[in-house]
Amino acid sequence: MTRYWEDFTVGESFDLGSLTVDGDEMLAFARRFDPQPFHVDEELAKETPFGGLIASGWFTASLFMRLYVDAVLADSTSQGSPGLSELRWLSPVRAGDVLDGRLTVLESTPSRTKPTRGTVVLRGELTRAGQPVLSTTFRGLFGRRPR
Amino acid sequence: MTRYWEDFTVGESFDLGSLTVDGDEMLAFARRFDPQPFHVDEELAKETPFGGLIASGWFTASLFMRLYVDAVLADSTSQGSPGLSELRWLSPVRAGDVLDGRLTVLESTPSRTKPTRGTVVLRGELTRAGQPVLSTTFRGLFGRRPR
């Protein structure tokens, strides 16, 4: 059933499912977008405060996005996002980590200028064995239910 | 010459260079991480407010990261980032767009707990023909110059 703006209820929380971090993909992403030693060079990474290879934060954020799309946006009236007001990388992510996603609706506001659209403020989280590794607060734009 | 925490001066601005958005890569990224219709389906995208395919915001942010790594972090004492306090997607990005990157140092603070580390608050921007398409304010951790 298509999810419209009206279907987001403040305080509602979604289990986004889980995923396992693929080491090869993690490395390929970093080589292309974030080639810092602790993301791309196993030997040099050992000499850094991280003690080994860790995921680019943008890779971790992108993995969160995929969980969010599959669980919530796939069948929705999503019209994208103007941005986010916070994104925190709380713990290094490594190959093989199992991450669980969660989404909570913080605010919901009809558009003042577009009667066919509304905004929701969402809190997204990734955890590993209950320990938070990523959190973010962002806005999502959604089409309203036709009347 | 390696860039230490001390080498970031508040108010200093860096030209990060420019890039052209590759349509195939933009699509492959969206298929994997952000498969919403306006990112992955050319026909369906025409029916959305965007009028055609646009980049996932995470792809655009990752492109910014690559410019930042190449221009500033590659030869630095970067120790990663705890997160960002703002990320705005200001205008849809499309295949073939030429994006210019810029970085400005907003704040610089020595660590209170780790004498070998300091934090900088940075403002990053991507523009297309002078028009802003992405802006972000984030923290970077850097090792201090040995004394």
TrEMBL record, chains A, B:
Protein name per UniProt: Dehydratase
Q: Which PANTHER family match?
A: BETA-METHYLMALYL-COA DEHYDRATASE, MONOAMINE OXIDASE-RELATED
Family from the record: Belongs to the enoyl-CoA hydratase/isomerase family.
What SUPFAM superfamilies does its record include? Thioesterase/thiol ester dehydrase-isomerase
Q: Identify the domain of life.
A: Bacteria
Recite the lineage of the species: Bacteria, Bacillati, Actinomycetota, Actinomycetes, Micromonosporales
Query: Which segments constitute the MaoC-like domain?
Result: 10-114
- A Pfam family this chain is assigned to: MaoC_dehydratas
State the organism of origin.
Answer: Virgisporangium aliadipatigenens
